[in-house]
Amino acid sequence: MGTHIIKLPDVGEGVAEAELVEWNVKVGDVVAEDEVIGAVMTDKATVEIPSPVQGEITWLGAEVGDIVSVGSEIVKLATVGDEDEAEETAPAPVAQQEEAPADDAPKSAAKGGYVIKLPDVGEGVAEAELVEWNVKVGDMVAEDEVLGAVMTDKATVEIPSPVQGEITWLGAEVGDVVSVGSEIVKLATLEGESGSHEADIHVIENDIAPEPGAVPAATPEADSKAEMLPPRASGEKVLAAPAVRNRAKFLNLDLSQFSGTGPEGSISHEDLDRYLLSQQAKSGSAAASKPAAPYAGTGNEPTKDVKVVGLRRMIAEKMSVANARIPHITYVEEIDVTELEGLRQSLNAQKDETQTKLSLLPFLMKSMVTALSEQPGINAHFDDDNGIVHQFEHVHVGIAAQTNNGLMVPVVKNAQNHGLWSSAKEIARLAQAAKDGSAKREELTGSTITITSLGALGGVVNTPVINHPEVAIVGVNKMMTMPKWDGEKFVPRKIMNLSSSFDHRVVDGYDAAVFIQRVKSLLEKPLMIFS
């Protein structure tokens, strides 16, 4: 008996995954060649999956409703033949070619050319975002030279070249999301001619313009160079950066009358300056050397366009989902942390060298664990697609941390099992891992509730956005010394606000208030935390 593996075929251009909507067979069934065994659905069509061979179903790799990646194994059959066909590709009618990892050079040779495809960049990953190109069309690259990098929610992966050759085509731009198995680079190898055509690309630096009406000051050196270049040929394309075009428009200059000195004959600000100086030299008038009137534009012209890519894009998408899907209710409560600060400072003064300095966060985490044990509906995820609230016994606290790469949320797992000192040590370890990029995927996922804090910059109040699919987030504001009336006189007290948001679909305002009030009572009488 042999084994035949069926993989999900390419079910449409640009489609990386599909939903399994039907099985026509079960384990133990015997199927004929070309018999339809199931169907998948994309946002474009429903596609039937036939069996390419006759055999007995021994394994089904997904359940109805599962999302399956293109190229993943979905069915195994026992065939009548003797050979094991474990590497069998996906069935007709849609052809599917198995992709090898980058190290195995997923490529095809034709006319001395190689096509590099995006390799499998992680288990269960069907697509990745292109975050960097190290090459451009026309570059010569050596074997194993890194061409670029892609980012998934797990890691950033460099893509090396399997051969030496010339880049003739790049199949994506930075910021594009690319499906596993799609073509991303074409190279012409040294052994033969490439059939690819290199595009006529003009690279123009989009530099920052001076004030559009500004006239450069005349100098002897400038006067000697202040000659207008001969006009360009009739019908020749005018190449200029947007800032140059805006400035020329304001000065009422016809760029078609200029021949630029930049790359490919592009017109630069220096070309405009030379022309303006030449006009000053010719007129010789004082009026010509006076600054032009202030720019009368709208003032809305951008000076720089920054594409949102990589981690910043992932953060943007997650925040958009949370804001769009979750009706937030934010509850703000004032906490008197005078006694807590006294206890914290006393404990820090007595700590040994092996212990991490205590901040407010370990005390807050301990208080939240106690409050959540009394209100488990807040230590939960809301599966709003299926209308199910998943409550958790264990408390996994996400700590929102700002890093040079953007906002990350390392997770203190099983916070209910940590004491103050072990909590402090784990928080410090995870924060450092997030900042230096060494945090593992499992350390950045799986939180059941999140704490967010801006430290000394925390402000008086904020409205934190819930970390979807969680149902609550606790926001820490900065601590301030304020006068409080004790019944006889005003006394200085250390005050801090908690600004916390809740998913109002599953957490009522009353329950939110009860939760925060419980946390407040523990923080204001910190010895109760240990009772």
Overall pLDDT score: 79
How many alpha or pi helices? Answer: 9
Radius of gyration: 32 Å
Poorly predicted tracts of residues: 85-111, 193-209, 220-229, 285-297
Which overall shape is indicated by the principal axes computed on the Cα atoms? flat
Oligomer: single chain
Instruction: Please give the largest β-sheet.
Output: 7 strands, mixed
> Separation of termini?
66 Å
Helix coverage percent: 10-25%
**Beta-strand percent range:** 25-35%
Explain this structure.
- With 531 residues, the chain is an alpha+beta fold.
- It has helices at residues 220-225, 242-250, 269-283, 286-289, 310-325, 338-350, 360-374, 420-436, 509-524, and strands at 2-7, 17-23, 30-31, 36-41, 46-50, 55-60, 67-69, 73-79, 109-110, 113-117, 127-133, 140-141, 146-151, 156-160, 165-170, 177-179, 183-189, 328-336, 380-383, 388-391, 397-403, 406-408, 411-412, 449-453, 472-485, 490-503.
- The strands form 6 sheets. Strands 18, 21, 22, 23, 24, 25 and 26 form a 7-stranded mixed sheet that branches.
- Helix 7 packs across helix 8.
- The longest helix has 17 residues, at 420-436.
